[in-house]
Amino acid sequence: xxxxxxxxxxxxxxxxxxxxxxxxxxxxxxxxxxxxxxxxxxxxxxxxxxxxxxxxxxxxxxxxxxxxxxxxxxxxxxxxxxxxxxxxxxxxxxxxxxxxxxxxxxxxxxxxxxxxxxxxxxxxxxxxxxxxxxxxxxxxxxxxxxxxxxxxxxx
Length: 155
Hints:
The protein is mainly alpha-helical and 155 residues long. The protein has one domain. The protein has eight helices and no strands. It has helices at residues 3-26, 31-34, 36-47, 50-60, 64-84, 88-106, 121-132, 141-149. The model has no long low-confidence stretch (mean pLDDT 88).
């Protein structure tokens, strides 16, 4: 397969992952009115054990109100970044970090359940590949801004 076709596939993956992150954020826009994150964390605490349970009880539950906004706006930022093709590498790091935190809080990080989790390894790897595989090369705000600036002058 040619390099140009590979880049096209990565750009398509970038758009798909942008839609994934945006849609997951949109699904949570009502969280502040419903305390859904608090309910999920309480369930994770009841079903968890060891370090995962301590993480949920000592960090996540006491700060659930702040964390819900970080989740909502974090997923939104990753989604919009991927859709626009702007700062995708930073967004990929943020998205992978969020996904790992979600998996850890759910107790799925070191479990076979990770494979069926929407934030599992497929999502994490696709997010990273979409950003680091040349996802900002075509059809992106970053490439448009680079063309707009023109070639840098020799100093």
